């Protein structure tokens, strides 16, 4: 292999040049006047290796860039794969791409050279497209190939906050909320950065209606119960009969998303899906808190009280009772917790990217599922449940 391409989503493309210069600081580096090309020359006593990085952005590439992204989206969209969740998230990543860095070497890219390319990719949160059609994450792991194979259980799209949140207006309430969260996290020994934006302001925030929250909480609890039972190697027919009995009790047939219905009707469910859906207890716990059934959300260092979540539904017994006893928390309460989990998640992602332990006793899997639930609650990016993003 003598060429590959990095794809990124970021507003400030000067960071691409910075990442290349930082990674190859010990080599001879030449940058074009327009900043669209960087040449790295590795001279040794009897040899010379040249690697050229050519940068095309959404702005400089115009229609050519748009066509390239459309072609890539279509290429991966048609792939048949058992890793459907990974595929859907990769498509989300592709739809948000803003720059491509074509890399061409005059000699075969060996392991040492590719490791340097991965360093650049990690610094700018890029995905790597290989000539074979394989897409890798910035750690070199296979996200998806044309055969539908993947080395990942999950894939998290990365889009820089300056691009995603450009539409969010800073408000006094939002700034004050951000400061309170940063002070709390600092006391807890959790890393913070000041330039992470505020979340949506009180006046602009839209909280899901009570009926939607109630139905989603019921569906999440049921899907988690079903997945958890299957993961413990219970009999499929018995688990399905049990969950259908509860669904009928709550009139919940219409509460499930397309992905959830596919899982419920799958006669040979994948274990990865079982585990992922079992994590929905954490999302359910957030919604039970939002509905007043959980008194407070503790620090996200441990998994939620699964039995208590199940008991809420068991004790209610039917939809009307569950609905009538629920009291949706105020917008201010929900936004306070949303801001907090947003900054917890940034800390987890930042440490993971830099190959450091997750800080302060946080459980990053609990954090990301809470983040998912809160972003759905506040209608983040107006996404339905199957496509909620947890951008940091």
TrEMBL record:
Pfam families hit by this protein: DUF4272
InterPro entries: DUF4272
Name this polypeptide is given: DUF4272 domain-containing protein
Species, as recorded: Paenibacillus profundus
């Amino acid at each position: 292999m003598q060429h590959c391409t990095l794809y990124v989503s970021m507003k400030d493309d000067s960071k691409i040049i910075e990442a290349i210069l930082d990674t190859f600081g010990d080599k001879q580096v030449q940058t074009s006047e327009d900043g669209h090309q960087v040449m790295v020359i590795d001279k040794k006593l009897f040899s010379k290796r040249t690697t050229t990085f050519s940068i095309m952005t959404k702005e400089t590439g115009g229609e050519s860039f748009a066509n390239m992204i459309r072609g890539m989206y279509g290429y991966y969209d048609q792939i048949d794969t058992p890793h459907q969740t990974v595929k859907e998230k990769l498509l989300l990543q592709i739809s948000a791409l803003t720059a491509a860095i074509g890399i061409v070497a005059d000699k075969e890219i060996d392991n040492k050279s590719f490791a340097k390319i991965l360093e650049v990719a990690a610094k700018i949160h890029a995905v790597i497209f290989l000539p074979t059609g394989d897409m890798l994450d910035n750690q070199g792991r296979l996200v998806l190939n044309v055969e539908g194979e993947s080395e990942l259980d999950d894939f998290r799209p990365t889009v820089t906050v300056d691009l995603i949140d450009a539409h969010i207006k800073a408000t006094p309430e939002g700034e004050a909320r951000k400061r309170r969260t940063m002070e709390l996290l600092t006391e807890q020994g959790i890393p913070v950065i000041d330039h992470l934006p505020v979340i949506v302001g009180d006046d602009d925030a839209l909280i899901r209606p009570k009926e939607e929250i109630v139905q989603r909480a019921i569906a999440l609890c049921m899907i988690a119960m079903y997945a958890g039972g299957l993961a413990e190697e219970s009999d499929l027919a018995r688990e399905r009969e049990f969950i259908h009995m509860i669904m009928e009790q709550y009139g919940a047939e219409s509460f499930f998303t397309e992905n959830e219905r596919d899982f419920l009707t799958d006669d040979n469910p994948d274990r990865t899906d079982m585990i992922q859906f079992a994590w929905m207890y954490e999302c359910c716990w957030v919604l039970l808190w939002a509905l007043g059934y959980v008194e407070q959300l503790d620090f996200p260092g441990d998994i939620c009280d699964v039995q208590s979540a199940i008991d809420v539904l068991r004790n209610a017994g039917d939809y009307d009772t569950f609905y009538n006893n629920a009291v949706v928390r105020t917008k201010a309460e929900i936004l306070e917790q949303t801001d907090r989990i947003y900054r917890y998640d940034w800390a987890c992602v930042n440490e993971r990217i830099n190959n450091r332990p997750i800080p302060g006793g946080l459980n990053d899997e609990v954090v990301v599922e809470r983040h998912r639930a809160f972003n759905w609650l506040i209608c983040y990016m107006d996404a339905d449940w199957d496509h909620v993003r947890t951008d940091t």
